[in-house]
Amino acid sequence: MIQFLLNQELRSEHALDPNLTVLNYLREHVGKSGTKEGCASGDCGACTVVVGELQTDDDGREHIRYRSLNSCLTFVSSLHGKQLISVEDLKHKGELHSVQKAMVECHGSQCGFCTPGFVMSLFALQKNSDAPDHAKAHEALAGNLCRCTGYRPILAAAEQSCCSKQPDQFDAREAETISRLKAIAPTSIGELNSGDKRCLVPLTVADLADLYDAYPQARLLAGGTDLALEVTQFHRTLPVMIYVGNVAEMKRIEHFEDRIEIGAATALSDCYEALNAEYPDFGELLHRFASLQIRNQGTLGGNIGNASPIGDSPPLLIALGAQIVLCKGETRRTLALEDYFIDYRVTARQESEFIEKIIVPRATTEQRFRAYKVSKRLDDDISAVCAAFNLRVENGVITDARVAFGGMAAIPKRAAHCEAVLLGQPFNNAVVERACTALGEDFTPLSDFRASKEYRLLSAQNLLRKYFIELQTPHIETRVTAYV
């Protein structure tokens, strides 16, 4: 059984189909049809809902953290122990919520189909903001698309709702909601079981290892932003899933003198602060990683584990020399991330083995790390090419070189020939040009709807040139802002 709060209503579910999304649960099982399906792939934001989780600050203060999510990509099992808020829950005692009023007063809606999703993104923004911030408003709304109104009045609604922020019914009930969330906090393995399909929800790494050993055919579910597409886009059935989002050990970020250890189930939005502090280019790339709704769900381990050749984080992690810890039963092994990827969607992971955490080296003053993403639009788009460069230059000579790309091969991959040309050579234009030529030996990219093979190779070479120029003239540095 799983338990969660539907606004303030306790829901206990056991026999639901584990393949059921929160979107369809709301619309078909509880009659809340305000949440809309636009794309069923996490691109449009019409299905946005907000999930509240109990958080404890470093000073021991308990509060509820509200996050916007795409309900079309969220399976119901991931709600275990949380609070689900949909657009119907905002109106209180016959009065619109302040974010709804702002949308009305700023004329932020025409056909209205996308409006509930915008309202929920604004609600989450308001809950997580103390003052209006243009950049935060853009970030909060980048995952919501509108085809008729235009975005200026919606951004005006964001400013108004944050400027005129007033306590609402959720603030008034915070202590009560905290108490109720504590009462339903999971204490044992949860389960949804419809007879022919099941989803298990472990709470510890040990439980996860035991379950995965017992069900090696199970699909591991973290954020589900990739896995859920098999259900919503390809109409496949997932007979057995194991949801790892309630394993607290795999959601920790620990800092050591020489490294940062990030649990594989840590949401990308939670990774931002730690990675941005060490590597600002990594932080910049995370801002361009899909939408905030996706970053609130998607995990660093999931972005690695799905072994996509166009995943944004693997090239950066490979260039940084990151490692992963793989767990199977009581056995653990540490593997260089670059050795995890073998071929298209083929990895070094053994049966019943899972990624427990990612180890990222701390930055050093000698490193010159930069990352670049080339895509057809700036926000919420998949890379045509993703490049990461990490050179160590001492007395004008390149003493270490790690160059990695995504979108250039069947796997995220280091550019071995390029690195060989750079290593031990002076860091000058002539050497960089020879290294650009060597990229043609490292990669034979494919042509697809995102880019031609010629465009990809030329982009990769130009990004290396860009990296060199920026390091010589840092005042023109633009970092991860390249796009087609």
From TrEMBL:
SMART domains membership: CO_deh_flav_C
The FAD-binding PCMH-type domain, residue ranges: 192-365
Keywords (A to Z) from UniProt: FAD, Flavoprotein, Iron, Metal-binding, Oxidoreductase
Domain 2Fe-2S ferredoxin-type: 1-90
Superkingdom: Bacteria
Gene3D superfamilies (alphabetical): 3.10.20.30, 3.30.465.10, [2Fe-2S]-binding domain, CO dehydrogenase flavoprotein, C-terminal domain, Uridine Diphospho-n-acetylenolpyruvylglucosamine Reductase, domain 2
Cross-referenced InterPro entries: 2Fe-2S-bd (IPR002888), 2Fe-2S-bd_dom_sf (IPR036884), 2Fe-2S_ferredoxin-like_sf (IPR036010), 2Fe-2S_ferredoxin-type (IPR001041), 2Fe2S_fd_BS (IPR006058), Ald_Oxase/xanthine_DH-like (IPR016208), Beta-grasp_dom_sf (IPR012675), CO_DH_flav_C (IPR005107)
One MF annotation (Gene Ontology) recorded for this entry: 2 iron, 2 sulfur cluster binding
Keyword check for Flavoprotein: yes
Protein's recorded name: Xanthine dehydrogenase small subunit
Organism expressing this protein natively: Pseudomonas fluorescens
